[in-house]
Amino acid sequence: MLKTLLLVYRILKWHKKTFPEYTICQQEEKLFVEAREAFDALEDITKAKSKHRQEICAKHIQEEIADMIIAGINLLRFKESRQDVIAKMNINEKRNWKNGQHMENNNGR
To answer: How far apart are CA 102 and CA 35, in angstroms?
Structure first.
């Protein structure tokens, strides 16, 4: 867990140093771009005909997912995003979970 927290800190420190003037809107846009690139890479792997091409596409998907994680972590620089995450975690902690998916509660949440 400590290694994970240190990685999050490293990413946030890098982002603040590299993009000191970034706004929350710019970072959200960055996350959306990375998500689109990940979906495009996923589409590419479904079209790949050779095993070699599939391996290249799989590596590309891993890199784009990593970019999405980095972009998401960087949103934590912004108070509004932290508040959104806290609010959503409060909902998630009250849910019942099975096989990685939440089960709908009786109250529709």
So the answer is: 22
Give the dihedral of Cα atoms 82, 86, 89, 94; nearest 10 deg. Answer: -170
pLDDT tens profile 22-81 = 999 999 999 999 999 999 988 888 888 888 888 888 888 999 999 999 999 999 999 999
pTM of structure:
0.83
Six token digits for residue 108: 């529709």
Q: Quick one: DSSP state of residue 78?
A: S
Question: Within 10 A of 42 (CB to CB), how many other CB atoms are there?
Answer: 15
Name which of 65, 69, 77 is nearest 17 in CA terms.
77
